[in-house]
Amino acid sequence: MMNRVILLALVALVLLASPLFAQPHSPGATPGADAAKGPAVDKGAARTFDSPGAAFFGAAVGAGLVLIGGGLGIGRIGGSAADSIARQPEASGSITGVALITAAMIEGATLFAVVVCLLGMLWGKDLP
Fold first, then answer.
1. How far apart are the C-alpha atoms of 68 and 74, rounded to whole Å?
2. Confidence class of residue 48 from pLDDT cuts 50, 70 and 90?
Protein backbone atom coordinates (compact mmCIF):
# COMPACT_ATOMS: atom_id res chain seq x y z
CA MET A 1 0.00 0.00 0.00
CA MET A 2 2.81 2.42 0.88
CA ASN A 3 4.58 1.75 -2.42
CA ARG A 4 1.42 2.70 -4.30
CA VAL A 5 1.14 5.96 -2.39
CA ILE A 6 4.77 6.86 -3.12
CA LEU A 7 4.36 5.96 -6.79
CA LEU A 8 1.17 8.03 -7.02
CA ALA A 9 2.90 11.00 -5.38
CA LEU A 10 5.82 10.81 -7.81
CA VAL A 11 3.50 10.60 -10.83
CA ALA A 12 1.50 13.57 -9.56
CA LEU A 13 4.70 15.54 -9.02
CA VAL A 14 5.87 14.86 -12.57
CA LEU A 15 2.49 15.74 -14.06
CA LEU A 16 2.18 18.93 -12.04
CA ALA A 17 5.74 20.04 -12.77
CA SER A 18 5.59 19.65 -16.56
CA PRO A 19 3.48 22.82 -17.20
CA LEU A 20 6.05 24.84 -15.28
CA PHE A 21 8.67 24.10 -17.92
CA ALA A 22 6.45 25.29 -20.80
CA GLN A 23 7.56 28.31 -22.81
CA PRO A 24 4.90 30.96 -23.38
CA HIS A 25 3.86 31.43 -27.00
CA SER A 26 4.82 34.86 -28.28
CA PRO A 27 1.84 36.56 -29.93
CA GLY A 28 3.58 37.73 -33.14
CA ALA A 29 5.44 34.53 -34.00
CA THR A 30 4.16 31.63 -36.02
CA PRO A 31 5.31 28.23 -34.83
CA GLY A 32 8.18 26.90 -36.96
CA ALA A 33 8.42 30.05 -39.11
CA ASP A 34 12.20 30.26 -39.14
CA ALA A 35 13.66 26.87 -38.25
CA ALA A 36 17.23 27.95 -39.02
CA LYS A 37 17.22 30.64 -36.36
CA GLY A 38 15.23 28.62 -33.88
CA PRO A 39 11.87 29.48 -32.38
CA ALA A 40 11.02 33.14 -32.10
CA VAL A 41 10.74 34.11 -28.44
CA ASP A 42 9.50 37.45 -27.23
CA LYS A 43 12.07 38.77 -24.74
CA GLY A 44 9.40 40.71 -22.86
CA ALA A 45 7.20 37.66 -22.30
CA ALA A 46 6.97 36.35 -18.77
CA ARG A 47 8.67 33.04 -18.15
CA THR A 48 6.69 30.47 -16.25
CA PHE A 49 9.61 28.68 -14.59
CA ASP A 50 12.38 31.16 -13.95
CA SER A 51 14.93 31.03 -11.15
CA PRO A 52 12.68 32.42 -8.39
CA GLY A 53 9.91 30.10 -9.55
CA ALA A 54 12.27 27.15 -9.34
CA ALA A 55 13.29 28.20 -5.83
CA PHE A 56 9.67 28.44 -4.67
CA PHE A 57 8.77 25.12 -6.27
CA GLY A 58 11.80 23.34 -4.81
CA ALA A 59 11.21 24.81 -1.37
CA ALA A 60 7.55 23.80 -1.39
CA VAL A 61 8.28 20.24 -2.50
CA GLY A 62 11.20 19.91 -0.08
CA ALA A 63 9.23 21.22 2.90
CA GLY A 64 6.32 18.95 2.06
CA LEU A 65 8.50 15.86 1.82
CA VAL A 66 10.27 16.73 5.07
CA LEU A 67 7.00 17.17 6.94
CA ILE A 68 5.59 13.94 5.55
CA GLY A 69 8.72 12.06 6.61
CA GLY A 70 8.72 13.62 10.07
CA GLY A 71 5.05 12.80 10.57
CA LEU A 72 5.55 9.20 9.49
CA GLY A 73 8.56 8.83 11.80
CA ILE A 74 6.83 10.25 14.85
CA GLY A 75 3.73 8.18 14.12
CA ARG A 76 5.81 5.03 13.94
CA ILE A 77 7.50 5.88 17.25
CA GLY A 78 4.16 6.48 18.93
CA GLY A 79 2.71 3.23 17.61
CA SER A 80 5.72 1.23 18.67
CA ALA A 81 5.74 2.84 22.12
CA ALA A 82 2.05 2.07 22.62
CA ASP A 83 2.59 -1.53 21.52
CA SER A 84 5.57 -1.89 23.86
CA ILE A 85 3.66 -0.44 26.82
CA ALA A 86 0.75 -2.81 26.11
CA ARG A 87 3.15 -5.77 26.21
CA GLN A 88 5.09 -4.68 29.32
CA PRO A 89 3.13 -2.15 31.39
CA GLU A 90 5.75 -2.18 34.16
CA ALA A 91 8.32 -0.60 31.80
CA SER A 92 6.03 2.22 30.66
CA GLY A 93 8.13 4.96 32.27
CA SER A 94 11.35 4.11 30.46
CA ILE A 95 9.55 3.40 27.18
CA THR A 96 7.79 6.77 27.33
CA GLY A 97 11.05 8.57 28.07
CA VAL A 98 12.87 6.97 25.16
CA ALA A 99 9.94 7.61 22.82
CA LEU A 100 9.77 11.29 23.79
CA ILE A 101 13.51 11.81 23.33
CA THR A 102 13.45 10.11 19.93
CA ALA A 103 10.39 12.07 18.81
CA ALA A 104 12.05 15.32 19.89
CA MET A 105 15.15 14.45 17.85
CA ILE A 106 13.02 13.78 14.77
CA GLU A 107 11.08 17.00 15.35
CA GLY A 108 14.34 18.96 15.60
CA ALA A 109 15.67 17.51 12.35
CA THR A 110 12.34 18.22 10.65
CA LEU A 111 12.31 21.81 11.87
CA PHE A 112 15.89 22.31 10.67
CA ALA A 113 15.05 20.93 7.22
CA VAL A 114 11.95 23.13 6.88
CA VAL A 115 13.98 26.20 7.85
CA VAL A 116 16.59 25.29 5.23
CA CYS A 117 13.83 24.97 2.61
CA LEU A 118 12.36 28.34 3.58
CA LEU A 119 15.79 30.00 3.49
CA GLY A 120 16.32 28.56 0.03
CA MET A 121 12.99 30.02 -1.03
CA LEU A 122 13.84 33.46 0.36
CA TRP A 123 17.30 33.53 -1.20
CA GLY A 124 15.92 32.13 -4.45
CA LYS A 125 14.11 35.42 -5.08
CA ASP A 126 17.49 37.13 -5.55
CA LEU A 127 18.70 34.73 -8.25
CA PRO A 128 19.20 36.28 -11.72
1. 10
2. low
Q: What is this structure's pTM? A: 0.57
Dihedral (Cα; 119, 15, 22, 36), 10-degree rounding: 130
Count of domains for the chain: 1
Residues of the domain holding 123: 48-128
The SS3 of residue 69 is: helix
Q: Give the whole-angstrom CA distance, residue 39 versus residue 62.
A: 34
Which of 55, 36, 22, 38 lies closest to 128, judged by CA? 55
Mean of the pLDDT values across residues 68-97?
94
Query: Of all helices (H) and strands (E), which one includes residue 8?
Result: helix 2-17
CATH no. for residue 59? 1.20.20.10
